[in-house]
Amino acid sequence: MNNLIADTAAFVKEKLRGAEAGHDWYHIERVWKLSVRIAEKEPCNREVVELAALLHDIADPKFHNGDETLALKVSRKFLESLNTQEEVIEQVVFIIKNISFKNRHEAPGNLPVELKIVQDADRLDAIGAIGIARTFNFGGFRNNPMYDPEIRPDLEMSKEEYKKSNGTTINHFYEKLLLLKDLMNTEPGKKMAEERHQFMLTFLNEFYKEWNVS
């Protein structure tokens, strides 16, 4: 691990101390490790991948009044303080700006492989057993209903509606999590997503059985 990566990891770990458990240092660490695993099989700039994975949630808009520029500013300022090459900074900031699910319709075409890798890693951490745990943790954090049979999933939400949504945690599976498998970019990401996707389907089947006491 080079000094830039090590310093960035230390910065992020300290910055996210006490963060909501689904978006804390451990989330970052998992995405970082998944990014490295995928990067080993994809021709890419490994340094850009690792830096973007580490900094991608340094200031998640959900916890900063919806400000989508703060993470870009914090990341740039930090990387500049370490005399990082401008080209690297530009690539990292581009990834952070375009990585999220809610911004997928605004992202430009021909995305760089580095973004595809980190995006796949971030999406992998949103599904499977960890994804289920994170989803219920965040739902509890927001005091959203766990499930309400009368509230149907909304698959036609605009970006702004999605950002403001206080729907049920179970609906979030249909509005986002179950869609991610088919949005994966890389072959390694697609393979890992299959197993995690199936686990979520098994969970949902069991959830409905227990909810209906059948």
Task: Describe this structure in a few short sentences.
59% of the residues lie in helices and 0% in strands.
Could you please describe the fold and organization of this structure?
The protein has helices at 3-15, 25-39, 46-55, 70-81, 86-98, 113-124, 128-141, 159-164, 169-175, 187-211. With 214 residues, it is mainly α.
The count of strands amounts to 0
Q: Roughly how many Å apart are the termini?
A: 52 Å
Relative helix content: 55-70%
Uncertain segments of ≥5 residues (pLDDT<50)? none
Number of helical elements:
10
What fraction of residues sit in β-strands?
under 5%
Order of helices and strands: HHHHHHHHHH
Q: What class, by secondary structure content?
A: mainly alpha
List keywords for this structure.
single chain; about 210 residues; mainly alpha; about 60% helix
List the helices and strands and how they pair.
Elements: H1 3-15, H2 25-39, H3 46-55, H4 70-81, H5 86-98, H6 113-124, H7 128-141, H8 159-164, H9 169-175, H10 187-211
Helix pairs in contact: 1-3, 2-3, 2-6, 3-5, 3-6, 4-5, 5-6, 6-10
